[in-house]
Amino acid sequence: MGFIEFLERLGGKTLEVTEAPLRRIPEGKTIQERLRALKEIQKEIEEEKKQLSEIEKIAEEILEWRKEEVTQPFSERLAETMLRYFKGPIEFLAHFFSGLDVDLYRANILMSPLKYVAYMLGVSLFVGIFGVLLAYLLYQPLVISLSAGLLGFIGGLFYMRLYPRLVWRKRVVEVEKALPYVLRHIASLLSAGVGIAEAILSVAKADYGPISEEFELIIRDMRTGSSFEEAMTKFEEKMASENVSRVVKQVLRAVKFGGNLADVLYKLAEDFSFEYRMKLVEYVQKVNGVSFIYMFITIVMPTMFVIGILAASVMAKTLVLNITAMAVILLLAFPIMSFIIINMIKSAEPR
Fold it and tell me: Hey, where are the domains in the chain?
């Protein structure tokens, strides 16, 4: 709205300037009259300069506003829009999502629970509308189109509620992957005489992914008055990971009782690396066993299925299975089974 008002005001000023008569110093009059006319022209020019400076100031304000709007994430803008028009229903709906604040905190999503519920609702509405349009474009009846929209809305709401947990689990996986390298990094700095806080700050400035972000939060907590033990315990509770818990307990024990923290961290890094190698060996053995099943389902079973249908049709002198059913089985059933096996192999991959 501000941008449109600015264009209207700018257009009005432009019309005023273009419609203004051309100023000329009167000819054939006395010098006093000509000087008086010249002063009036100067006053008009100064007034126009003031108006132009006001227009430039408005333009700068609009540009700054547009910059802030562009830099603001789409999720924030969508949530604010939904809150502006549906604040009451969103506040009512937020009461049913218990534990959302904890999930957002663990996922490091910097959004209040109420605003995230508004974002959830906005995304779900988009998915529902897309479902209705897609079913309509496929020439489906109105009832089926509305049902598709309703399913899309419910599915979008369900997915957006699980999204913070998915992000948190992904962050935990990334943190656990980087732990051996981070522990060696800290241990090498401690061996060189650097303090534990400075070592954590060094990791925070390095590029280790989510664990660098978490270490930066630890440093921020310590700067705001939290003790080292409180900041590390907070990090442990946020991650809720067995490996992270082992590291935090060992670090706090070494700091409290005066052990050699560098050696402890080196030992932990070696333990994690050894555990990962063992998991990798087990994973390779599982993949070797599952690969045979995968090849059987993707290559042998479809071939045997087609041969069996053809043989039965020849013996019965009629097609025992219509073309549509065969197409559904070959194009949907077998690929779905293959996808399930691939997903099982991927989920078993060591983290």
Answer: 2-71, 74-167, 171-274, 282-347
- The dihedral region occupied by 111, where left means phi > 0, alpha psi between -120 and 50, and beta the remainder, is beta
Residue pair 203/185 in contact (Cβ under 8 Å)? The answer is yes
DSSP letter assigned to residue 139: T
**b vs e for 138-167, b when ≥16 Cβ sit within 10 Å of the residue's Cβ?**
eeeeeeebbebbeebbeebbeebbebbeeb
Tell me if 130 sits within 8 A of 155, measured CB to CB. no
CATH number for 171-274: choose from 1.20.81, 1.10.287, 2.40.50, 1.10.40.
1.20.81
pLDDT tens, residue by residue, 287-320: 777 777 778 777 888 888 888 888 888 888 787 7
Q: What's the burial of 37, exposed, middle or buried (CB within 10 Å: 0-12/13-18/19+)?
A: middle
CB 318 within 8 A of CB 310: no
Classify burial at 244, counting beta carbons within 10 Å of its beta carbon; exposed 0-12, middle 13-18, buried 19 or more.
buried
pTM for this prediction: 0.66
What tens digit of pLDDT does each residue of 10-43 get?
455 444 444 444 445 555 556 666 667 767 777 7
Most confident listed range (15-24, 212-221, 337-346): 212-221
